[in-house]
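Forum: Protein Structure Q&A
Topic: Joint prediction for protein chains with partners

I've read a bunch of threads here and the consensus seems to be that you should model interacting components together rather than docking separate models afterwards. I'd like to see that in practice. Below is the full input, 227 residues plus whatever partners are listed. Could one of the regulars post the assembled result?
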Amino acid sequence: MVLDVLYFAWLRERIGQPRERIETEAATVRDLVAELAAMDDWHAAAFADMATVRCAVDQKLVPLDSPLAGAREVAFFPPMTGG
Amino acid sequence: MSARVQTEPFDLAAELQGFGAGSGAVVTFTGLVRDDSGQMQGLEIEHYPGMTEAALEEYGNEAARRFELDGWLIIHRHGPLKVGEPIMMVATAARHRKSAFEAAEFLMDWLKSRAPFWKREIGPDCTGGWVAAKDSDEDALTRW
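Posted by a regular:
Agreed with the consensus. Here's the joint model:
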């Protein structure tokens, strides 16, 4: 499947781009993270501490073990600080 | 019953024109850019277009159900903001004040740690770090 992967805040800065298109067979978000982290040092740095990373699949907040079947857009970002 | 995400300032008085007509109670909260270090120029707020609007709408509707609101309004700004400028507001209208107060607190607790916004501090030399999420904000959700 082809996914649009989006990054926000310091994840965007560490990776050096706000979005990229990824061809993947990853079954879960966690599998996708493992693939992304193996791509290069920038991705590895962004995903080094998963306790500080949150995820949304198709714009819904989900846990890391969520399945990716049918997903089109996956976003990674730090814990939110609105308000 | 609406949520807006915008860069421009908002006029609280104008926003409240006609809001809560026929209700017994209106509560509003406005968040301002605060300078904790004494050296901050302001904040840069990033968000996730699309998801942000959907999340604010969802929490507004949830508050309306739980607290039997007659009306709600959420406005949250993004982009660069100077110290002292308003960042966001919520308004709730209900038959009685307890529901209106509780709904406003509920919305603020959810917005702080579940709406996709991220703050970066702008320091005196225009550099600055991302604001870290507080455990206390996450803990605040457990009471709902």
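Chain A has a mean pLDDT of 97.
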